[in-house]
Design goal:
Elements lengths: L4 E2 L6 E2 L3 E3 L4 H10 L4 E4 L14 E4 L6 E5 L4 E5 L4 H10 L2 E2 L11 H6 L16 E7 L5 E5 L4 H7 L8 E8 L1 E2 L2 E10 H6 L1 H6 L3 E6 L5 E9 L12 H14 L4 H13 L4 E6 L12 E9 L3 H15 L7 E6 L14 E9 L5 H13 L3 E2 L9 H7 L3 H11 L8 H7 L11
Parallel strand pairs: 3-5, 4-5
Antiparallel strand pairs: 1-2, 6-7, 7-11, 8-12, 9-10, 9-11, 13-15, 13-16, 14-15, 14-18, 17-19, 17-20, 18-19
Helix pairs in contact: 9-10
C-alpha cells in the first residue's frame, strides 16, 4: 500500500511504495541497492519544487544525525547529513564554533540545505555549501564514497550542490567560524530610497537584507554586524501577527485598494526600529508558522533593483491577492558547478504566496522578469526551467552531468521531475542488481 508524503507547504505530494529511515550508512547503502526506484531523499520538506516526489522510495535521513567529530584549532565540525539546522546551531555553539551565516529558517536538514544551495545574506558571505571541507555519500550502486577539498577540489565543487541526485549524503565536514556575536538593527525606509541606495546599503554591513511589503511603499531593512558588546534582549517577534493583519486587510479591503494601501502604508511606517546584540545563533532565525509557496531567483547583483521594481509593479497592478513580503538578499560568488552563485555576486529576490491560494498565476507572471535579467532559480523553490535552460545558465553544466552519470550510472536517483531537470531518462522502478 502506498505511503503519503507532502512538503511543508502541502503543494507537493507523493505516494511512494516505500518511505524508509535508515539508521546508518550501511542500512542506507542496502536501501539504495534494493529499494524500489527511483529513490529520492527527504530532508525537512522545505523545498517547493518536486525534488523529493517519487512513486518509488523516499528516504529520510532523520536517524542519521548529530556530531561525528570536531577540530577546535581549525574550527571544523563533521556532522551527519540528517542533522537539522536548529540542532546544528546548538551543537556548534557547544564546541565554540558558529555557522558564518544563515538563512532565517532552521528546520531544514543540513544535507537538504547543502543540496539546494540554501543561503543567508551578505556580499562577502557564501551559501552553506561554500563551507564544505569533506563530503561522504552513498552512490547509485550502494557504494560509500568520500571526497575532500584538499584531495579533490573538483569533486567537492561538482557535488556540493547536488539536488539529492549525486548520491545520498551521509556525513559532511564544514569549515566554521569561532563563535561570535552580532549587532542586529532593523528600520523602515521608503522603497524608492532603498532601490536608489541599494548597493551602498547592502555592502555597508556584514549582512544586510530587506523586505518589501506589497502595497506599502516601504521596506524593512535589516543589518547585522559583528560586535563585542554585551548581549541585550532580542525584541519580541511579531512577524506572524503582522502577516495576519496584512491578510485581513487584503481580504476585507480587496475592492477598496486605495484604502487598503493607505492602511498598510500607515501600519508599516509605525513599525518600531530594533537594535540589539546577541550570540549568532539567537539572531538569524525567525518563526515561520504561516505556510506559503515561494519562488526565488538569483540575479546579477547590479540588476537586482531594476528587477525588483518590475516585480513590485507587476504585483501591485495585477495580483491584489498577494500580501506576503518580498525578501531581497545578497550572496557572494563561488566556484561550485551547480551553484546559482557560480562566479557572480548575486542579488536574490524571493516572492511568496499564501499556501491557501494557488500560486501558479503569480509565479508564472513573475518568472519572465527574473529570466530577462539572467536569473538562476533557487533549486528548491518554484520555477519552470528544464535542462536546456540550465545548460545556458551554468558554464560547468556538462561537467556536472558527467560526474552525475559516474555516481549514478543507472539513474537510481532520477525521478521524472529530475529527468526533466537533467535531460535524461528517468530511472527504472526496480532495484539495483
Amino acid at each position: 500500500m502506498a505511503n503519503a508524503w507532502s512538503n511543508w507547504s502541502g503543494f507537493v505530494k507523493a505516494a511512494p511504495k516505500l518511505i524508509a529511515a535508515p539508521a546508518d550508512a550501511g542500512e542506507l547503502a542496502e536501501l539504495v541497492r534494493m529499494a524500489p526506484g527511483p529513490l529520492r531523499v527527504a530532508g525537512a520538506g522545505h523545498s517547493f519544487t518536486p525534488l523529493v516526489q517519487s512513486d518509488g522510495t523516499i528516504v529520510s535521513l532523520e536517524k542519521i544525525e548529530g556530531l561525528v567529530s570536531h577540530d577546535a584549532a581549525a574550527n571544523r565540525a563533521r556532522v551527519r547529513a540528517g542533522t537539522r539546522l536548529g540542532a546544528l546551531m546548538h551543537i556548534l555553539q557547544g564546541i565554540g564554533q558558529g555557522l558564518p551565516n544563515m538563512g532565517d529558517i532552521d528546520k531544514q536538514a543540513i544535507g537538504g540545505a547543502l543540496g539546494t544551495a540554501t543561503h543567508g545574506s551578505g556580499p562577502t558571505l557564501g551559501a552553506y555549501h561554500t563551507q564544505l571541507e569533506t563530503v561522504q555519500f552513498v552512490d547509485g550502486q550502494g557504494k560509500l564514497r568520500e571526497y575532500s577539498r584538499a584531495g579533490d577540489q573538483d569533486m567537492i565543487q561538482a557535488v556540493g550542490v547536488a539536488l539529492g541526485a549525486f548520491g545520498v549524503l551521509t556525513e559532511v565536514t564544514m569549515n566554521n567560524a569561532p563563535t561570535y556575536r552580532l549587532r542586529r538593527r532593523k528600520w523602515v525606509l521608503p522603497i524608492g530610497d532603498m532601490l536608489r541606495d541599494f548597493e551602498t546599503m547592502m555592502a555597508g554591513h556584514r549582512s544586510a537584507e530587506f523586505y518589501y511589503i506589497p502595497f506599502s511603499g516601504y521596506a524593512q531593512f535589516i543589518a547585522s554586524d559583528l560586535s563585542e558588546q554585551p548581549t541585550t534582549a532580542r525584541p519580541t517577534e511579531d512577524d506572524e501577527e503582522g502577516l495576519a493583519t496584512l491578510r485581513k486587510l487584503r481580504t476585507v479591503l480587496r475592492w477598496l485598494p486605495s484604502l487598503r494601501r493607505a492602511l498598510i502604508k500607515g501600519a508599516v511606517k509605525k513599525v518600531p526600529s530594533e537594535d540589539y546584540v546577541q550570540d549568532w545563533f539567537n539572531v538569524y532565525v525567525s518563526d515561520r508558522r504561516t505556510r506559503f509557496n515561494e519562488m526565488e531567483y538569483h540575479l546579477p547583483y547590479e540588476d537586482g533593483p531594476k528587477a525588483l521594481a518590475e516585480i513590485i509593479e507587476l504585483t501591485e497592478k495585477h495580483f491584489p491577492e498577494v500580501y506576503f513580503p518580498m525578501e531581497i538578499r545578497s550572496v557572494a560568488p563561488d566556484e561550485f558547478w551547480l551553484s546559482p552563485f557560480h562566479k557572480r555576486l548575486t542579488c536574490s529576490i524571493a516572492i511568496h504566496h499564501d499556501a491557501a491560494n494557488d500560486p501558479l498565476a503569480f509565479m508564472r507572471a513573475a518568472e519572465p522578469i527574473f529570466l530577462k535579467y539572467g536569473g538562476r532559480p533557487h533549486w528548491g523553490k518554484m520555477h519552470s526551467l528544464k535542462a536546456a535552460d540550465f545548460k545556458k545558465l551554468y558554464p560547468r553544466w556538462d561537467d556536472a552531468m558527467a560526474v552525475r552519470r559516474d555516481i549514478d550510472p543507472e539513474n537510481r536517483f532520477v525521478s521524472p521531475y529530475m529527468a526533466g531537470l537533467f535531460g535524461v531518462e528517468p530511472g527504472p522502478s526496480g532495484t539495483h542488481q
